[in-house]
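Students often ask why inverse folding is considered easier than folding. One informal answer: many sequences map to the same fold, so there is more than one right answer. In these notes we will look at a single instance of the problem. The structure comes first.
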């Protein structure tokens, strides 16, 4: 039998994104958008973004099936998200955590503050690994938020058929849904 242990740890990560809060929040809340920056394998990803809704993400790492599942506890649009998560390695629970995500105005941009408190079980995951991984996906969110507008979106905007529906004053298009994803 493996040695049993519990390590408790809390970390705080902050990122500053040069876009409005509504856009950062939507990138977290919309399943199509979040899959683009969060899911390694979109076929193994699902998001039901509502209080009581589940988010699941899966992968294989070093021959082991890794499953991450979160339950959304509270969602206050454009202000905060509270969720609890379980990370499993094959069928064994590796980590249980509580996370809060705050969206704070910062000039013309958004300051995102994520705090996560976790219990790391039996050495299957380390707090430093979780903090590094969470930081990596917040960085991926940042890259997504500043991606150039796709040529498909520009064509759809010109034809007034953009599925995003987000065209700001002056005709500047925000590619929040990645219109080109559904266009042949």
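Output (designed amino acids):
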């Amino acid at each position: 039998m493996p040695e049993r242990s519990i390590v408790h740890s809390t970390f705080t990560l902050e990122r500053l994104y040069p876009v409005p809060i509504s856009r950062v929040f939507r990138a977290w809340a919309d399943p199509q958008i979040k899959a683009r920056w969060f899911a390694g394998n979109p076929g193994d990803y699902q998001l039901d973004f509502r209080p009581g809704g589940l988010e699941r993400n899966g992968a294989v790492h070093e021959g082991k099936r890794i499953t991450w599942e979160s339950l959304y506890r509270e969602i206050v649009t454009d202000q905060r998200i509270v969720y609890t998560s379980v990370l499993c390695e094959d069928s064994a629970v590796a980590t249980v955590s509580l996370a809060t995500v705050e969206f704070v105005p910062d000039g013309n941009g958004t300051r995102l503050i994520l705090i996560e408190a976790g219990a790391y079980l039996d050495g299957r995951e380390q707090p430093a690994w979780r903090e590094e991984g969470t930081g990596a996906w917040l960085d991926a969110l940042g890259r997504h938020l500043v991606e150039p507008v796709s040529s498909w979106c520009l064509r759809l905007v010109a034809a007034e058929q953009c599925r995003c529906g987000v065209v700001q004053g002056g005709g500047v298009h925000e590619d929040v849904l990645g219109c080109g994803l559904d266009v042949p």
